[in-house]
Specification:
Length: 489
């Protein structure tokens, strides 16, 4: 029996003749070869990952993608799929070797179908999240996936990383919002399962192999997504608190009162609010005096808006009677609610303006989060004295973005050189608390070396077997997600 392949072949840079053949598939205007035109595709917004590529292919149809993959498979040409280039772990960026072609899905940007009877929308992979939300709203429906860069983030990338966002508490992650997929495989074959069915038990659920696979098993070209009734009423609330323990206590109380109507529940430390007020224009923060911690949450309902507002106000009145709540604020208007959320959705950019940042996208059992935050703060001070922890995120589902900003006035390059040391310490702490080092951003290039620490041998073996079956030439997104083989290390 042949041993299972776990590494990647040594890809040769495509010859000019081969590049010409790829160009013929998509047409000269959509085969970018000038390095000035290619450059925006080769670095992500945090400027951490830079790559090289001799060509960016921008196909305009599924047929063109199948032809690209047939040629790539026959010639052992590595292909890196890319959506809106909003990923944070480098999975959409080719390596620096210059031997991989980048395949941009941005021209596959059509809505294929909206079915209000089955409450589904069928979209191509290059549709932005904002565009899908707009089209759903036009038929009085809601597509609830909500991320920071909705106007640039594309659904194909969201599916490839199983993005979560602020509404995952109630609606789930991208995986939970997907009924069917269309995928072009490494050999150019098309897996077409664009089904609108809520119940379908005919064999294995193949779509879930590709959701979260980060383009390593196939190229997602279209999806059938769930739609929901638009809520009649929505209330947005800030509460100032002394500590994360109090936040968890309120999480349970709000869930008891409102159940699935609680769509988001975000935890923010005071330092995050200070960053936001310094660097985000037009925000409306409701409190004049500071508090160590805050929670921000939305409650939506199909009931009468005045009734929901009264119920939420009564809840806040009862909360203010306890010493565990410092202050409360209920948004008066939709505009004010959007301003409340600006401090949360703009957090990454605000933190960027404070200098260097070392980031961790982790998930933990909710009950251990307070203890973790205390222990992690001590680790940060021990490893980088004066660095500023900025932990924030989705407390309702246990996903915390444990970010660390550089000490004020420190040299950015000196601070960032300590990333690996701090990552090792934080990830070891996450492991001790039985958490995950990748909650919603994926593994990409940034964390593939950690997979052996956080996945069992059996799990990794199965992942490699899937890869060998679906992409035996290992041409799809090499160097992403799967742990490196010994020869790569």
């Amino acid at each position: 029996m042949r041993p299972m392949q776990t590494g990647y072949p040594s890809f040769s840079p495509p010859s000019n003749d081969l590049l010409d053949r790829f160009e013929q598939i998509v047409g000269t205007p959509h085969a970018l070869r000038d390095q000035e035109d290619i450059r925006p595709f080769l670095r992500e917004w945090r400027d951490r990952f830079h790559g090289q590529s001799p060509m960016v292919l921008r196909p305009g149809s599924v047929r063109e993608i199948t032809e690209i993959m047939k040629l790539a498979n026959a010639t052992s040409t590595a292909i890196v799929p890319q959506g809106g280039n909003t990923g944070l772990v480098g999975g959409q960026i080719p390596s620096r070797k210059g031997n991989e072609l980048l395949l941009s899905l941005s021209r596959l940007n059509r809505i294929l179908n909206i079915d209000t009877d089955s409450d589904t929308i069928t979209v191509q992979a290059g549709c932005t999240l904002a565009y899908i939300q707009e089209k759903a709203s036009s038929v009085n429906r809601l597509f609830p996936l909500r991320l920071g860069p909705d106007g640039q983030s594309q659904i194909g990338g969201n599916l490839s990383t199983n993005a979560g966002g602020v509404n995952a508490l109630s609606y789930g992650t991208t995986r939970d919002l997907t009924l069917g997929l269309q995928v072009v495989l490494a050999n150019g074959e098309i897996l077409d399962s664009l089904r609108h069915l809520r119940k379908d038990n005919t064999g294995y659920d193949l779509k879930n192999i590709f959701i979260g696979s980060e383009g390593t098993l196939g190229i997602i070209t279209a999806a059938v997504l769930k739609l929901f009734s638009r809520p009649r009423a929505e209330e947005t609330v800030y509460i100032a608190l002394p500590d994360p323990e109090a936040a968890i206590g309120l999480l349970h109380k709000v869930k008891d009162l409102f159940g699935q109507s609680l769509t988001s529940f975000e935890l923010l430390p005071d330092i995050a609010i200070c960053f936001g007020l310094r660097h985000i224009s037009g925000v409306n923060f409701p409190f004049l005096s500071p508090s160590p911690w805050y929670i921000l949450f939305d409650i939506v309902s199909g009931e009468d808006p005045d009734l929901l507002r009264t119920r939420v106000a009564a809840m806040l009145t009862s909360f203010r009677k306890t010493e565990r709540v410092h202050m409360t604020a209920q948004a008066e208007t939709r505009k004010q609610a959007q301003s409340f959320w600006q401090l949360r959705t703009g957090m990454s950019q605000a933190q960027k303006n404070e200098g260097g940042s070392i980031k961790h996208d982790i998930a933990l059992p909710i009950g251990v989060i307070p203890k973790f935050l205390n222990e992690a703060a001590a680790l940060v001070e021990k490893n980088i004295p004066g660095a500023r922890p900025v932990p924030f995120g989705h407390l309702g589902d246990g996903n915390i973005h444990y970010n660390v900003s550089q000490p004020p006035g420190a040299d950015i390059s000196v601070f960032l050189r300590q990333r690996e040391k701090l990552n090792t310490a934080i990830h070891a702490l996450v492991n001790r608390h039985e958490g995950s080092i990748s909650a919603e951003h994926g593994i990409g290039r940034a964390k593939r070396g950690l997979m052996k620490q956080f996945r069992s041998d059996v799990e990794l073996k199965l992942m490699q077997q899937f890869k060998n079956i679906l992409d035996p030439g290992r041409i799809l997104n090499p160097g992403t997600l799967l742990p490196p083989a010994e020869q790569e290390e």
